[in-house]
């Protein structure tokens, strides 16, 4: 099998300590696209590993939240999620192999003695090197350290960052097995990636400084290196590291705000990756176009307004029925079947008003009113003008005669009534809009009448007349 046809294997490896962070979701997306892309060779896989070696912080609910977030985004993975904790024996086995081959050594330097040795090296501006590196025995418990190169430099060939050089003189011999026999992250991640057949390690550039140490383990075991691709982190609009003050951090927060999976996927994709000047990138195009060469070196800036605008495109692509179903889910409970029908009829006019479905309650407010309802404040002013009730009665009569209850026909009927009676639209439109919407935002009068339906619209006009007369 040639390099060109060798399957691509990527992985997403979150720690189960919280929700699916927006940065983690982007990392998962990039890995998923790499493995699922249309140019990926047959047999390529996207794997999932839960890095749960820190049992004190392990949270099973967090694991499920991460999996749920990935499912909601449509980022399917191959096989069962792998538990790093369950592979501790395999990690220790590799540590023992490195020890037996002289690529690692036992180090009894711990506690205060270790701190003192590190401080001395720091003061002398020299590399900290354990006195046990070249032999010798100590007493009590020990750790196992990798024998890392002392001279020269380690070159990481990164698909995003280019060649990154690390002087070996500033590194030390990494602990790979703790004194209690448990593996460190540095060892576990390399062993797991190798055993899972991972060919591409795509992760945040906060891991870049770990890569030389991990590369040393690969080399010590004689294993092929994967392709490393370190993606710049996501910053807030102020250019600072992303934190809670910048807005939603977890995928579930975006879902709760009414983002669509494809809308969020597109928004995340644009945080650090580009394909020419394309802003709207549907999932199928992302699978066709994605490649590591499109990832920039500069940190991406989270722009919530831009992400909402991108999501709005996908809202507009929904069928009217799907739009209504999703909008209903963001309205107060116990909405009637009539309301659902109104929203579906109004969908062609409302989609432009909804960027995320958190906008649905405002956009659909005029449709959810239940008679009798009050018309107060500024909305009531047109109804208090002289002749308002007569205008509403005459409009009702004109509308009753409309056979084709469509937005265009209804709009024409209102205009015809105004022209026939020598009235300006300002004398006709405001009282009718007040009667139909009680001041809630709404589309054109023709569209509003159509969305409400004949029976509801006529009932609201009649109720408004009664309300004015009773005052």
UniProtKB/TrEMBL annotation:
Chain positions recorded as ATP binding sites: 244
**What InterPro entries does this protein's entry cite?**
aa-tRNA-synth_I_cd-bd, aa-tRNA-synth_I_codon-bd_sub2, aa-tRNA-synth_I_CS, aa_tRNA-synth_I_cd-bd_sf, Glu-tRNA-ligase_bac/mito, Glu/Gln-tRNA-synth, Glu/Gln-tRNA-synth_Ib_cat-dom, GluQ/Sye
Gene Ontology cellular component terms for the protein in this record: cytosol
Q: According to the UniProt record, what class of enzyme is this? A: ligase
Which domain of life does the UniProt lineage start with?
Bacteria
Q: List each copy of the Glutamyl/glutaminyl-tRNA synthetase class Ib catalytic domain by range.
A: 8-307
Keywords assigned by UniProt? Aminoacyl-tRNA synthetase, ATP-binding, Cytoplasm, Ligase, Nucleotide-binding, Protein biosynthesis
> What Gene3D superfamilies does this protein map onto?
1.10.10.350, HUPs
Q: Domain Aminoacyl-tRNA synthetase class I anticodon-binding: where?
A: 323-464
Using the UniProt record, give the first listed, main subcellular location: cytoplasm
Which is a GO BP term held by this UniProt record? glutamyl-tRNA aminoacylation
Listed EC numbers: 6.1.1.17
Show where the record puts the motif 'KMSKS' region. 241-245
Where would you find this protein in the cell? Cytoplasm
The catalytic activity, as recorded, is:
tRNA(Glu) + L-glutamate + ATP = L-glutamyl-tRNA(Glu) + AMP + diphosphate
Which purpose does this protein serve, as stated in its record?
A: Catalyzes the attachment of glutamate to tRNA(Glu) in a two-step reaction: glutamate is first activated by ATP to form Glu-AMP and then transferred to the acceptor end of tRNA(Glu).
What family is it from?
Answer: Belongs to the class-I aminoacyl-tRNA synthetase family. Glutamate--tRNA ligase type 1 subfamily.
- Tell me the protein's name: Glutamate--tRNA ligase
Organism per entry: Parvularcula mediterranea
Which taxonomic lineage is given here?
A: Bacteria, Pseudomonadati, Pseudomonadota, Alphaproteobacteria, Parvularculales
């Amino acid at each position: 099998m040639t390099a060109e046809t060798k399957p691509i294997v990527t992985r997403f490896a979150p720690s189960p300590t919280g929700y699916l962070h927006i940065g983690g979701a982007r990392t998962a997306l990039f890995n998923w696209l790499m493995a699922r892309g249309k140019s990926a060779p047959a047999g390529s896989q996207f794997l999932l590993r839960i890095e749960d070696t820190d049992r004190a912080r392990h949270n099973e609910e967090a694991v499920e939240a991460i999996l749920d977030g990935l499912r909601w985004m449509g980022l399917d993975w191959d096989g069962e999620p792998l538990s790093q904790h369950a592979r501790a024996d395999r990690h220790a086995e590799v540590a023992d192999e490195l020890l037996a081959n002289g690529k690692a050594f036992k180090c009894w330097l711990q506690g205060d003695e270790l701190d003192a040795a590190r401080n001395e090296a720091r003061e002398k501006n020299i590399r900290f090197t354990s006195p046990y590196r070249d032999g010798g025995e100590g007493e009590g418990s020990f750790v196992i350290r990798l024998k890392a190169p002392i001279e020269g430099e380690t070159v990481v060939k990164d698909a995003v960052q280019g060649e990154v050089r690390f002087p070996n003189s500033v590194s030390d011999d990494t602990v790979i097995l703790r004194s209690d026999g448990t593996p460190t992250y540095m060892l576990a991640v390399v062993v797991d990636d190798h055993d899972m057949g991972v060919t591409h390690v795509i992760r945040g550039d906060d891991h870049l400084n770990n890569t030389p140490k991990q590369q040393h383990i690969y080399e010590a075991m004689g294993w092929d290196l994967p392709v490393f691709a370190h993606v710049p982190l996501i910053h807030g609009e102020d250019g600072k590291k992303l934190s809670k003050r910048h807005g939603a951090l977890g995928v579930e927060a975006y879902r709760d705000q009414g983002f669509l999976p494809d809308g969020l996927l597109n928004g995340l994709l644009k945080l650090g990756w580009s394909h020419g000047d394309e802003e709207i990138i549907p999932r199928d195009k992302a699978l066709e176009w994605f490649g590591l060469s499109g990832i920039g070196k500069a940190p991406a800036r989270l722009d919530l307004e831009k992400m909402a605008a991108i999501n709005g495109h996908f809202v507009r692509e929904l069928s009217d029925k799907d739009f209504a179903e999703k909008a209903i889910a963001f309205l107060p409970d116990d909405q009637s079947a009539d309301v659902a029908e109104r929203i579906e009829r109004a969908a062609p006019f409302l989609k432009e008003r909804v960027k995320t479905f958190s906008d649905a309650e405002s956009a659909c407010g005029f449709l959810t009113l239940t008679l009798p309802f009050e018309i107060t404040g500024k909305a009531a002013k047109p109804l208090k003008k002289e002749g308002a009730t007569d205008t509403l009665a005459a409009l009702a009569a004109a509308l009753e005669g409309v056979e084709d209850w469509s937005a265009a026909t209804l709009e024409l009927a209102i205009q015809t009534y105004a022209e026939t009676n020598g009235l300006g639209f300002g004398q006709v439109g405001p009282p009718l809009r007040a009667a139909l919407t009680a001041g809630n935002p709404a589309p054109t009068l023709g569209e509003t009448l159509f969305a409400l339906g004949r029976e509801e619209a006529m009932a609201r006009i009649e109720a408004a007349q009664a309300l004015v007369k009773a005052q």
